[in-house]
Amino acid sequence: MKRIFALGIALGATLFFGCLPLPAQTGGELRFCLRSEPKTLNPLAVNDDASETVRYMTGGVLVRVNRVTQKIQPELATEWTISDGGKRVRFKLREGVRYSDGTPFSADDVAYTMQQLMDPALHSSTGDAFRSGEGSVTTRVVSPTAIEIIFPAPVANVISLFDTVAIVSQKSPLKEMAALGPFYVAEHKAGAYLLLKRNPNYWKKDANGRQLPYLDAVRLEIEQNRDIEALRYQRGEIDLINSVTPAIFEKLSGETTGLVRDAGTSTDTEQLWFNQVASAPIPAYKRAWFASTAFRRAVSEAINRDDLARIVFHEHARAAVSVTPPTNTFWFNASLKPHPFDPKDALQRLSQEGFHLDNDVLRDKDGNAVEFSIITNAGNKPRESMATMIQQDLKKVGIKVNVVTLDFNALLERISQTYNYEACLLGFLNADLDPNSQMTIWLSSGDDHQWNPKQKSPASGWEAEIDRLMRAQASSMDQHKRKEYWDKVQKIAWEQEPFIYLINKDALVAISPAVKNAQPSVFRPQAYWNIEQLALAR
Amino acid sequence: MKIVRIIAVVLLVLAGISVICARWIAPADYALQFRESPDAAPSAHHPLGTDELGRDRTARLLYGMRVSLVLAPLAALVATVLAGVLGGIAGCAGGWVERGCMFLSDLFLSVPWLFLLITVRAALPLNISPESSAAVTFLLLGLLGWAASARVICAGAKSLMASDFAWTARATGFSGFKLVRLHLLPNLRGPLLAQFWISVPVFILAEANLGALGLGVTEPLPSLGSLLREMQSMVTLRPEPWQFLPILVLIIIVSSFQILLNQQEVRA
User: Fold this and answer.
1) How far is residue A314's CA from residue B243's CA, in Å, rounded to a whole number?
2) Of the partner residues A247, A251, A405, the one whose CB lies closest to the CB of residue B214
3) How many CB atoms within 10 Å of residue A534?
4) What is the ipTM, given to two decimal places?
């Protein structure tokens, strides 16, 4: 009887404790690859993907945009207020925080960081986002835990911009290498790897009061070759790949379930545009085609976007509508739909502009056969495949397309300096949800106004209207007003098609089942945005 | 060995007929995309299946053979002739002529082809036809690919000039071009042919890699090199035998030619 009773107690205890959630595993070294050597470890001078990865994991920021909910979360700043028409931001800072080397964190460090960031000598692209007008950005240290940052003009969505500003120490002997983030750079072997170790002074704790991060270290191997990276992942030598190609995704998902995940439609776009630069060394009759809205709309309608998504991206993409994808729920203009695939309508539009078919060759009103080249970067297999498919689509409406793949530097030179090209197929990586980050693309004077950059004055009425709308949204603090302006910009872009948006790719990641608490997001960094909560089950 | 020669001849004739009659043999146009059946397995409609864009592999192989097997040997011929002329002159003349030719060869070997080819690409118009881009690519390969062979020919020519029969020929009054044509060239035929046959597959593969610079054969025209480039990815390569046909075809054709030419050498 006693034995049965004891057995019952033991069984009950096992069942009870077995149902409790297990504490997260701690320790271990997470391993993944960088595609190139980081150009800098100074978090304020980051301008490339690899450096951004290091900054994300080592930099402490005032706020963090949650990559799943898209909401701003307090980090080193616990509260903030905006006043003076959006020109003044006051942050209340977290107390008792120390850098990885033990140096105390205070408002002086925030002031120092902003001073460094806005220094023209640094050429910080992060700092550029804060340049709202003539005049300099100043700071006022109210107390060790309170600081005011004063801008010469309102900065749209200013709080979320601090997601990319890593606060560096004014006093630490390690300078910018002293980290407030979950990790610090412990070792760096150029060309080989970086080893990040857990920050012993990291301020954040989990819901059970355990200090984060769970991981002991993160090893970042430098590996350019995507195939080798995928092979290493298959062999278990690395634990995740932040972004995989559709072909590798299909291969890995076919082998073992749970190795890869499709996080959904990302913010990255693939688009085609025509060269509309007046001084471009291309024949005048071609410039006239490219400047015609009807021509661009016709080309757009002749391209089968669904086929591109299905065949090139294995269904891991969607036909694109605008630069803002539907997953950017607040900023996307939901009234817009993808342009339909309609070659008949395309020919109709062209005929209204004087184009006609002559033995399956499309000619303009002066008899010139419609032929142009599309340049794209060599080595990007999906882009090369898209260009080949577009070539076939446009052949059906009588347009001859020559596909030219160039190395990236030669391509950049053509589209940004010599303008010696006719059409270009490229993608944009949109890291920021807020359209204010695209000022340089949509302003006619912008460097990245790709189809006709650096205009002294807008070349067309619709570009002038876009200029007006972009400036209006940049200087407004009312999010709903800004949304209205941005919706109008998207509508104009949809009608005029200076960029023929083709597809929005899905965010495809590879995360080992051994990595716990992973919540892949469509926003960068997709696989490890919650790095401090990732754990390894060994 | 006779049966091997017969097989080699048959294979070459078949390849030649296929290349000439590609237009009639191919089940479909090489550029036509059957988008409902990408990466399809072999079938009655597509004997070798389709590629990732739904294009018939048989058609692409036939036209790819046409491009590569015509242009690569032409490029190899250009390279071999240049190597033969410069290497031969260097080996026969010796002295400062030899030093000058070898300096030129060293220069071509040390020039970073990459920057030269990028410059060429920048100078070429963007709107050139795929056929023209193919011709320009192989011509460039021929003009740049002679240097290593020239050193081999030079060494061979020097060795021949020191041989007994060369001395005898010179003693009997042969010199200059007559000496080269009647005595040296026939004896250099072996190394020249070897260099030629080494160059053919090298140029086919080099053309594939030049695609990264915007040179190479442009879409939609296929070449053996571009078909081989599809097998570049180790991870996504599927174990489907028909994908490996381009490399098998290349091996068979090059080997068949070498078998026949080796026999001719033995007879000579």
Assistant:
1) 20
2) A405
3) 26
4) 0.84
Helix (H) or strand (E) holding A33: strand A29-34
Question: A402 vs B218: CB contact, 8 Å cut-off?
Answer: yes
Both tokens of A46, joined, read 């980051």
> Are A404 and B214 a contacting pair at CB < 8 A?
yes
**Closest approach of B36 to chain A, Cα-based (Å):** 9
What residues have CB less than 8 Å from A363, skipping those under 6 apart?
Answer: A355, A356, A357, A369, A370
Residue to substitute from A404, A409, A412, A425, interface B, most B β-carbons within 10 A = A404
Neighbour-count burial of B263, counting CB atoms closer than 10 A to its CB (0-12 exposed, 13-18 middle, 19+ buried): middle
Amino acid identity, position A6: A
Dump strand ranges (E) for A84-127. Answer: 88-93
Q: Does B171 touch chain A (CB under 8 A)?
A: no
DSSP A315: T
Per-residue pLDDT tens digits for B17-70: 998 899 899 999 999 999 999 999 999 999 999 999 999 999 999 999 888 888
Stretch B225-238: mean pLDDT: 76
Question: Cβ neighbours of residue B114 under 8 Å, at least 6 residues apart?
Answer: B213
Q: How far is A510 from chain B (nearest CA, A)?
A: 14
Query: A392 vs B220: CB contact, 8 Å cut-off?
Result: yes
d(CA B27, CA B45): 7
B33 CB neighbours in chain A (<8 A) are 389, 392
CB contact under 8 A, B219 and A372: no
Torsion of CA B82, B85, B88, B91, to 10 degrees: -80
Q: What is the 3-state secondary structure (H, E, C) of A439-486?
A: HHHHCCCCCCCCCCCCCCCCCCHHHHHHHHHHHHHHHCCCHHHHHHHH
CA atoms of B43 and B29, how far apart (whole Å): 16
Q: Give bridge partners of residue A503 from the DSSP assignment.
A: A270, A319
| For the ranges A131-145, B48-62, B156-170, B184-198, the one whose mean pLDDT is highest | B48-62
Does A306 contact B at CB distance below 8 Å? no
- Interval A248-260: pLDDT, tens: 898 888 877 778 9
CA atoms B48, B53, B55, B58: torsion sign: negative
Q: Output the DSSP codes for A158-178.
A: HHHHGGG-PPPPSS-TTGGGS
What does pLDDT average to over chain B?
84
A422 part of contact set with chain B, CB < 8 Å: yes
List of residues 6+ apart from B157 with CB closer than 8 A = B87, B88, B90, B91, B92, B184, B188
HSE at residue B49, side-chain half, CA atoms within 13 A, is: 14
Give the orientation angle of helix B2-20 with respect to helix B245-267, to 10 degrees: 130
Which residues contact residue A285 at a Cβ distance below 8 angstroms, ignoring those fewer than 6 apart? A364, A366, A368
DSSP string, A124-162: -HHHHTT--SSS--EEEEEETTEEEEE-SS--TTHHHHG
Helix, strand, or coil here: A208? coil
Q: Do A389 and B212 touch (CB under 8 A)?
A: no
Contact B219 A307 (CB under 8 A): no
